[in-house]
Amino acid sequence: MKTLDTYDFSGKKALIRVDFNVPLNEKYEITDDTRITATIPTIKKVLKDGGSCILMSHLGRPKDGPTEKYSLKHLVNPLSVILGLQVKFADDCIGESAAEQAASLKPGEVLLLENLRFYKEEEKGDVAFAEKLAKLGDVWVNDAFGTAHRAHASTAVIGQFFTDRVCGYVMQAEIDNAQKILEKAERPFTAIMGGAKISDKILIIERLLDKVDNLIIGGGMTYTFTKAQGGEIGKSLLEADKQPLALELIEKAKAKGVNLILPSDNVCADKFSNDANRQIVATGHIPADWEGLDIGPDTIKTFTEILEKSKTILWNGPMGVFEFPNFAVGTNAIAEAVVKATEENGAFSLIGGGDSASAVNNAGYGDRVSYVSTGGGALLEYMEGKTLPGVAALE
User: Fold this and answer.
1) Helix, strand, or coil (residue 295)
2) Known catalytic residue: 65?
3) Cβ neighbours of residue 354 closer than 8 Å, sequence gap 6 or more
4) Catalytic-labelled residue, pool 195, 330, 352, 354
5) Does the annotation mark 377 as catalytic?
6) Residue 64: phi, psi to the nearest 5?
7) Per-residue pLDDT averaged across 326-339, rounded?
8) Which residues bind substrate per the record (predicted)?
């Protein structure tokens, strides 16, 4: 695989697949620019060599072609400020205007193309669409790890039209850090799995049972474990058909000598709202009309003690409904414990993208852990041992 440091971009137009799928508020302002800032070193390396950059990305999930809400034009000014140069914008990703602007691009200049997903062909992995995109640049750089698990036109199919295919810095760091966790983890190794559903995490949990010393389970999926063990969960999240699987995972952990830790208490609410009435109850004792929305203080204490003794930590998924400040206590406490283990005990900590990355960044801890992944689903699939089309296309 060609890497950025082994390639000279002098006089080349680099067509770079970036992941600029950032959250915007109703005024089209970026609320978390992590994914953009992550790609800046890749862009700067090309410019420093004397090349130019043509950036392509998706934003959101537009249903029917061009939509104001999902236009990448909203990113032009913030990106220009971060880069310290005026970024040009093409109001299409293929077609005449894009071709003309790409052709006239001079070394040191940056052009951002309009949202790839305004064309259905992008997600379908359409070969003709990929070929049209390919004609815009001399060399293809894939730096969008967050979409590497999708065989889309710009992330994988396009590779066949380039002799030179280069792995960007984000992509390289993601792979290196995932490998460090999977192959070179120092013990004790603790994985924290949160989020809503067991079904989303089943494959990664099964793989981790062969690797970890401790597996901490939090978030909405814990209620399926509780119900499966005969507990009362009120109106909490439940995947009823996954109860046998939950029991099976508990047994597998026992058989492999893995310490599987579930919450001992929950913060529950009388409605799904930040201003709901709250009470702390022991796990398995949630009243009929209440629902669990966070882990309780005893659980936080237990989880924290385990994390403080850990040398390798993988965290994917929040401990509760962290979007509501009143139910973000557990998630924030885990973030603090991971930071403490990293800074005071020299633990290697990898935060696995998606909601956990948002939680850590929003709490201001992003630069105090070892690595924050930009790709939630892609990282999980990579760790499950699956081949990622976006990575395979670079090889």
Assistant:
1) strand
2) no
3) 316, 317, 376, 377
4) 354
5) yes
6) -125, 75
7) 95
8) 19-21, 35, 58-61, 117, 150
Number of residues written out for the chain = 395
Provide the pLDDT for residue 140: 98
Residue 200 CB contacts under 8 Å (≥ 6 apart), including other chains: none
Tell me if 58 is assigned to a ligand binding site.
Answer: yes
Q: Which of 44, 197, 252, 340 is flagged as catalytic?
A: 197
> Is 354 in the active site?
yes
Catalytic residue among 12, 13, 17, 35: 35
User: Annotated binding residue at 74?
Assistant: no
Using the predicted structure, report yes or no on whether residue 73 has a pLDDT greater than 80: yes
What contacts 184, CB < 8 A, 6 or more positions away? Answer: none
Q: What is the pLDDT of residues 96-148, one digit of tens each?
A: 999 999 999 999 999 999 999 999 999 999 999 999 999 999 999 999 998 99
How far is 71 from 114, CA to CA, in rounded Å? 7
CA–CA separation, 12 vs 177, rounded Å?
A: 29
The band of 249, judged by pLDDT with boundaries at 50, 70 and 90, is very high
In this prediction, residue 20 carries a pLDDT of 95
Separation CA 9–CA 46 (nearest Å):
6
pTM: 0.86
